[in-house]
Amino acid sequence: MTLVNETSALLSKLGVSAAALSAGDLAVSSPVTGETIATVAQVSAATAANAIDEAHAAFLEWRKVPAPRRGELVRLLGEELRAHKDELGRLVSIEVGKIPSEGLGEVQEMIDICDFAVGLSRQLYGLTIATERPGHRMMETWHPLGVVGVISAFNFPVAVWSWNAALALVCGDSVVWKPSEKTPLTALACEAIFARAVKRFGDDAPHGLLKVLVGGADVGEALVDHPRVPLVSATGSTRMGRAVGPRLAGRFARAVLELGGNNAGIVCPSADLDMALRAIAFGAMGTAGQRCTTMRRLFVHESVYDQIVPRLKKAYESVTVGNPLEGKALIGPLIDKAAFDGMQKALEEAKAAGGSVTGGVRVDAGHAEAFYVRPAIVEMPSQTGPVMEETFAPILYVMKYSDFDAVIAEHNAVGAGLSSSIFTRDIQEAERFLSAEGSDCGIANVNIGTSGAEIGGAFGGEKETGGGRESGSDAWKAYMRRATNTVNYSKALPLAQGVSFDI
Ligand code: UN1
């Protein structure tokens, strides 16, 4: 079966009509072969504004539905995802080029967040707070917020939507989603899956709870500027975040920004090197280096450098790069030519800065328009040039260190602050890395790589990563508004702070 036929068969199983695949002028290509697999319709900014108004009307109804009942819709969404895990996972592999276990893993991440959100729908707790006034009670109430705008990136085309949507829906919000222009098909699939969950749920799900807007930057801008969107959760480059953040701030809307990462690992003298090797390999090469959590920098203590770096280089030379759909390769393609060019440019810059490069060359998979590349490991004399920036490709810069305090300072010396990890069996090093004086990232791990976080924790990072938190823990609070309520059940009117105002 050709890729075009397989894509259309998968989408039809998922509930997307064949007509939608040739409905417009946005060409969707698969990075697996580089061929065009669909041409879908894009909406205009005016249509986007109407969709936001519809989603707002849906919010006005949805906010009245009790939260545990809202959780039932997300439970059904999780059921639909379970039932269609294979098809959606395969579609992720076709549209993004992920290997099968990672395509399926992304859908599993969606199922996990649905389960989490269902539990959460009975746990949207507020505090009761002691008041200083007699006969008074003070409490917090969490209310639905409104339309949540979601702008997602190509690399996790569906999981990141689900982190936001599952929380938003149990929190009583509606969702307007602008997927990456590179991955509209998986978004259309999610729209159809969600529609089935809504149908099973019944009449109390208002029309317009989820709007999917396939379109360009003008559609993203419509979402960012619309006064009826109190929160935009945006995943993408730091450049995108710099454009979006101030616009949201300008109208006092909330931003959950999940931007670039320049994630590092530190290998200490006591590290279990076999374990570190495997963790680094997955963290740096997995998903062809196209996770925001991908390990991009590695600091290795001089006493173990010669024991681990040659082994890593060997792994880079031998790892299987190739067509992810055939099921044997560990590294699939880059998303497009621009990603390949960006990688080559970074490698040239690294060489100019004294780096010694292993790998990084194009791998011929028999498709002129598909960009497969051998991952690159670059030994650098110091942390300079391209090491300071995120290049969204499989490049791992390796540097030698001798002093623990100095390596922590170097670790934190880049703009981004998403994920980090240390490999050590020394409890003092581990704890110092996790302490206030240690890693400055939103995610800090011990004896685990930088990527592959579970949904139960809050996901996001500091500094140029944008500061937002999605997914687990108490990330839900960004999707609700908090009211502090004080109730006077006495017959007097004592004022706080001892103020008297007798008229
Ligand atoms: C992303 O790359 O935008 O921690 C998200 C991870 C995944 C999510 C990555 N759970 O690598």
TrEMBL record:
What PROSITE patterns does the annotation carry? ALDEHYDE_DEHYDR_GLU (PS00687)
Which residues catalyse the reaction? Answer: 258
Question: Which Pfam families did the record assign?
Answer: Aldedh
Keyword 4Fe-4S part of the UniProt annotation: no
Sorted alphabetically, the keyword list is: NAD, Oxidoreductase
Q: Which family does it belong to?
A: Belongs to the aldehyde dehydrogenase family.
Q: What is this protein called?
A: aldehyde dehydrogenase (NAD(+))
